[in-house]
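Here is one chain, start to finish.
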Amino acid sequence: MTEALLLGLSLLSLQVSGGSAGAAAAASFLGGTYAAPFFMLVVLAGLVVPFALEWLEWRRLAPTLMTPILVLVGGLALRFIIVFTGQAA
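Its structure:
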């Protein structure tokens, strides 16, 4: 969950100290054009589902290969969304 905290702090710093372009980029993450891909790919598929799978593995479920794949997909999606948002702003 450290990643979620760092992601939240990054968005907060973008909103507060990023100027008008930073505020526009943060607004597009949280409620604009890129909100749905951000929340579906980065937050849900890259953070929440892997955390749940890790918790299930800790509770003695067999390890699965989906957890690291989803983390990588979420990280790659975050990179693409950051680049596309920066180009649009």
